[in-house]
């Protein structure tokens, strides 16, 4: 009994000090995460005039034409990615090499720029979420805090586990009658229990995002050991890179069929590899994200099939959606918002419990 008690006491102290060290960062990251869950919805409201257009897009869209028209209108600027949606009333989204985002109307040729990051509300939220506005140092702080938070979740679950039937009542009801400490304790432990699985996924994916070397090693392992279903097709390439860009786009559309979103990486002039992704559906379980790579020096188009590949590969390609809660569309976004609020509350209730315990009672004379 004494040994068991000492182990539990040690776990309690680890949980406490881990929470105190990472608490403020986790609170900030959780609140900004709550907001950024609804990024698409916020952008549709804040930048409605930029994202949507009166003219409907009809006819064939060629990536090379998009690149040519935008670079002619913006001398010196180079495109990084192009996002095309099947909604005919949505402008084409383009990200420049500088990181600036703009929207292009292929019907009229108009280009509309999003406000710079320092004035863009959602960009400010994302920077705060990723780096606390402290640059590379902030990114490391967030990554380490996410790691500590993930460990605290596991320790918290061990400490939550009922030691007897008498404790069951406190383990499942988040709001019960009692003194101040009991009320705070049940809010902390029970809400943490209900949000455990979601927060564990969010925390662990946050750790993978935060440590690039870990992220790269996981990608290497999965691509080496998990089933990645590929389909290779020989096609006659062209001498000009932009013609190959259009060719890859046309062939990808033939192989993929209907899609909801296409993300095209704009190739450099001397590049021998052209990549693009086509999404089907609006949620991880309902969609697939097939990737297409054209090796121009081999005249070979390679398709990576999402549905036919292994579980680990599908989770890898869906990593962002798993982190943001966008794996079941609007339903999971609402759940992600709620559980992110719970994550923000955990450092607060944990601190209040610690403060209550350390506060010395005032002696009455």
Overview features:
365 residues, alpha+beta, 9-stranded antiparallel β-sheet, 14 helices, elongated
How much of the sequence lies in strands comes to 5-15%
Shape: elongated
Rg over alpha carbons: 25 Å
What is the spatial order of strands in the main beta sheet? 4-3-2-1-6-7-8-9-5
> How many helices does DSSP assign?
14
Poorly predicted runs are none
How helix-rich are the residues, as a percent range?
A: 55-70%
Q: Spell out the helices and strands N to C.
A: HHHHEEEEHHHHHHEHEEEEHHH
Summed over residues and divided by their number, the pLDDT gives a mean of 86
Question: What is the number of beta strands?
Answer: 9
Question: Main β-sheet: number of strands, strand sense, barrel status?
Answer: 9 strands, antiparallel
Taking the alpha carbons of the first and last residues, their distance comes to 40 Å
Overall tally of domains: 3
Overall SS class:
alpha+beta
In short:
The protein has 365 residues and is an alpha+beta fold. Helix content is 55%, strand content 14%.
């Amino acid at each position: 009994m004494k040994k068991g008690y000492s182990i539990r006491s040690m776990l309690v102290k680890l949980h406490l000090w881990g929470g105190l060290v990472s608490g403020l960062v986790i609170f900030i990251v959780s609140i900004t995460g709550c907001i950024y869950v609804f990024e698409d919805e916020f952008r549709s409201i804040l930048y409605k005039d930029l994202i949507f257009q009166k003219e409907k897009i009809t006819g064939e869209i060629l990536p090379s034409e998009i690149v040519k028209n935008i670079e002619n209108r913006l001398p010196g600027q180079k495109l990084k990615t192009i996002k095309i949606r099947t909604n005919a009333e949505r402008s084409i989204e383009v990200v420049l090499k500088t990181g600036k985002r703009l929207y292009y109307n292929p019907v009229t040729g108009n280009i509309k720029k999003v406000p710079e990051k320092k004035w863009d509300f959602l960009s400010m939220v994302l920077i705060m979420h990723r780096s606390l506005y402290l640059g590379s140092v902030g990114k490391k702080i967030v990554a380490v805090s996410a790691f500590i938070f993930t460990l605290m979740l596991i320790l918290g679950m061990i400490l939550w586990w009922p030691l007897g039937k008498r404790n069951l009542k406190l383990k499942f009801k988040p709001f019960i009658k009692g003194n101040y400490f009991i009320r705070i304790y049940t809010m902390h432990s029970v809400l943490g229990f209900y949000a455990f699985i979601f927060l564990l996924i969010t925390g662990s994916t946050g750790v993978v995002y935060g440590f690039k070397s870990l992220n790269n090693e996981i990608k290497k392992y999965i691509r080496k050991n998990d089933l990645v279903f590929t389909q290779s097709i020989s096609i006659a390439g062209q001498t000009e890179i932009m013609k190959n860009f259009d060719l890859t786009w046309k062939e990808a559309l033939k192989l993929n069929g209907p899609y909801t979103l296409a993300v095209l990486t704009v190739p450099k002039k001397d590049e021998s590899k052209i990549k693009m992704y086509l999404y089907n559906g609006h949620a991880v379980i309902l969609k697939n994200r097939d990737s297409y790579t054209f090796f121009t020096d081999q005249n070979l188009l390679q398709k990576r099939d999402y549905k036919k590949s292994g579980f680990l590969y599908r989770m890898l390609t869906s990593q962002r959606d798993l982190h943001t809660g966008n794996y079941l569309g609007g339903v999971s976004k609402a759940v992600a918002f709620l559980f992110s609020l719970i994550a923000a509350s955990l450092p607060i209730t944990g601190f209040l419990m610690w403060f209550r315990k350390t506060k010395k009672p005032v002696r009455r004379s």
